[in-house]
């Protein structure tokens, strides 16, 4: 996946965490997701369509998911609260929405999020479609933003952007 | 959710299972999904956008997921095979694609599928958005098709269709 397409997701995550969660976030070097990565207990997944088709998955260990959802809702939540999935789904929606705005040449539309809660989840994708992971770290704990994206032939790519730190 | 919107999903599931899996499928009365439903070990999730925004999740107990993916691939698969997630993701894609064709007035586009593998998953949605479940039964085992869908204001609804059995 081209840096022009991953940078909008990096800035989207930073923007959403700083503005909505008042939380500084450190995003490390993106990695190509392998199937053996099972540090996920909760995944908020949202699809998108348009000049690029794909999906974004926010993948949390349980502890980070609870801290993040609680901070978002402004009250302590457990994973069984109805607001828990709502908060994480809304975060996924905001990250995709922010990235969409940055990828405006691609005319992206965002679907509705689903939040899967379990233990040691394996979040998989078509093997033809590589998934880029952004390792994220903050006071709320670690998580990853996983992006799978296929640019539709003939769609206009955004201008190359400076890489986020 | 209106019957006009759920029937296209019923006929889509029937069409995909009969043609792609050569498997007769019985779909029982749709239900409003409650949060306590945890009979899912594998979920293939795909979003859609357009005149209606939402997502479809095929939710399988492990045994049905393995039987279905193996039948689709034409070889015995385990949940750790790369083709396992591919097969179920492709099935989700076909179900959404068939439903999209039946909902043509709504100009729907389908995103890329994600497949989540775990144990006793809770597949959640925004609490503002009800999820309709279609209980499905076949020689490959039980599963459910869960549909969350919001019609965008002003979008043209399809003509009422006769209810599928």
Give a structural overview:
The structure is a homodimer of 165-residue chains. Chain A is an alpha+beta fold and 165 residues long. Chain A has one domain: 3-Layer(aba) Sandwich (Chemotaxis protein chec), CATH 3.40.1550.10. The first copy, chain A, has helices spanning 3-20, 62-73, 82-102; strands at residues 25-27, 31-32, 40-49, 52-60, 109-110, 114-124, 131-138, 143-151. Helix content of chain A is 31%, strand content 33%. In chain A, helix 1 (3-20) crosses helix 3 and helix 2 crosses helix 3. In chain A, strands 1, 2, 3, 4, 5, 6, 7 and 8 form an 8-stranded antiparallel beta sheet that branches. The radius of gyration of chain A is 15 Å and the shape is globular.
Tally of DSSP β-strands of chain A: 8
> CATH superfamily assignment of chain A?
CheC-like
Strand-residue fraction of chain A?
Answer: 25-35%
How many distinct helices of chain A? 3
| Chain oligomer state | homodimer
Main sheet summary of chain A: 8 strands, antiparallel
CATH topology of chain A: Chemotaxis protein chec
Helix content of chain A: 25-40%
- Based on the structure given, which CATH architecture of chain A is correct? 3-Layer(aba) Sandwich
Structural domain count of chain A: 1
What characteristic shape of chain A results from the CA principal axes?
Answer: globular
CATH class of chain A: Alpha Beta
Low-confidence stretches of chain A: none
Radius of gyration of chain A: 15 Å
Task: Report the end-to-end length of chain A measured between terminal Cα atoms.
Answer: 18 Å
Mean pLDDT, all residues of chain A: 91
Q: Which structural category fits the helices and strands of chain A?
A: alpha+beta
In sequence order, what are the helices and strands of chain A, one letter per element? HEEEEHHEEEE
